[in-house]
Fold:
Amino acid sequence: MADVEHNSIYGPVDSWRLGRSLGVDVLCVDSICSFECVYCQLGKINRVTTERAVFVPTEKVISDLRNADWQSADVITFSGSGEPTLAANLGEIITAIRDLTGKPIAILTNSTLLGDANVRAEAGLADRVYCKLDAWSEDSLRRVDRPAAGIRLDSLIAGIRQFRKEYKGFLGIQTMLLTRPADTDIERLAELYREIGPDEIELNIPLRPIPSEWVLESRGNITGRPEGMRVLKTMEPREAGEIGSRIAGLTGIRVITPFDRPGTE
Structure:
């Protein structure tokens, strides 16, 4: 394995869900994901795949962590340059970080690999797991998330549901909305949330700028509109709040949005 040039630890950054969050990037040799979402803040995904591998050695992650300001973080979060469950050493890294820091650990996942029992077991080592569910139909999955070949919505949802059955920690479902869905689509989303039974639903709209190519620094909180980056036209935050209130009423599950906490992303 070639030497990894980039730092696998970034932040801490202020997270609207988690407070002061120190990021762990187990993919930082490239942008690597099983989705290529139209709103992705990383820019271009250079490797669209569902194949797990070791991209950053565990020893490199722990060395970077020792040199980081982990003590001031509220939580240590796996996200970074793509889909963290693609890292075949994910469980090993989680265990090593917990042994070193004793901090709560969170994972942000796009849910595509949760059909794999090994992935569920490794993700289950985290204290909090946030599973992406942007789609209510195959068409919306392909339009918004643009998945790798072979990924279907029914298998993705089945993986989340199985993970919910096995997982003892906090499960959030994160949904990114671009334009206002039709009422029937909102009702279908609510039905899916009820089937999964998460502890919380997080609704958001994509406000971060999107580079044309992979930009490592965009794994953190880039705000404004730097040169060469575009911003998507989306629904208004008020509309997202209205949809959140409706979904809460339909499901009985707590729904939060970043607009509940002004000044955070």
